[in-house]
Amino acid sequence: MYKEKYVNKYEVLDFSEFYHVYNKAVGSELLFKTEKDYYYFLNKFDRYVNAFAEIYTYCLLPNHFHFLIRIKEESEIIENLKYIGKELSFEKINQAFSNFFNSYAKSFNKIHKRKGKLFMLPYKRILVDKEDYLLILINYIHRNPIHHGLKDNFSDWKYSSYNACISDKPTKIKREEIISFFGSKDDFIKFHQENKEKPGSEKYYLE
Measured between alpha carbons, how far is 148 from 61 in angstroms, rounded to an integer? Predict the structure, then answer.
């Protein structure tokens, strides 16, 4: 009988692979208190992580976030950072995420006049190596505002990639590739509306 592999929530990030990256605030703290915080967080990702990874799907909620990312090919990262002659490793990619979280936390603490740790550590990263889970995860991430009682309609939540996926406006997410996973934009929308589940898929989500 086929035995499904154990899902490691602290995967080593590898080139060209998809990962579900997520984290939450410590205790009852918030990660985002104002609209500016949400956009500032995404800008910080661009600054610190974009050279190593690209966002396919995201959802930012008051006390936690979800990203579906793909680590770029090693040659592309080397070209981006001019790392010729230097070894690339998980530590360098992981350090980019660490710098991202630390920089945001320091800025957030300064703006909102707070002290101390902001994020739970370590952050979670799950390898997404099956196409069916990839589709379900995209749906789960976009529908998260409903799951947490923030909206009745997930498309009304401003801080996710759903509307960027169905829009024609410029975007930094990999819209064409995301839509291609589902076949067409109509199929993408229908999949989200039907909210299909798969037994065992909950382990790819936030506890």
Answer: 9
* Tens of pLDDT, residues 138-175: 999 999 999 999 999 999 999 999 999 999 999 999 99
Structure token pair of residue 55: 């966002």
**47 token code pair:** 């600054």
pLDDT value of position 199: 58
Q: Per the structure block, which two tokens stand in for 12?
A: 């080593």
- Does the residue 192 lie in any domain? yes
170/11 Cα distance (integer angstroms): 32
Q: Domain limits at 194?
A: 18-204
Is 198 contained in some domain?
Answer: yes
Determine what percent of the chain falls in helix, strand and coil, rounding each to the nearest 5: 45, 15, 40
- What is the C-alpha separation between 20 and 127, in angstroms, rounded? 7
Query: What does each C-alpha distance from 101 to 14, 43, 87, 168, 177 come to in angstroms?
Result: 20, 12, 24, 30, 27
The alpha carbon dihedral of 128, 130, 134, 140 has a sign of negative
Cβ-based neighbour number of residue 18 at 10 Å: 19
Name the band, by pLDDT with cuts 50, 70 and 90, for residue 4. low
Q: Give the CATH number, domain containing residue 41.
A: 3.30.70.1290
How many domains does the structure of the chain reveal? 1
d(CA 140, CA 192): 8
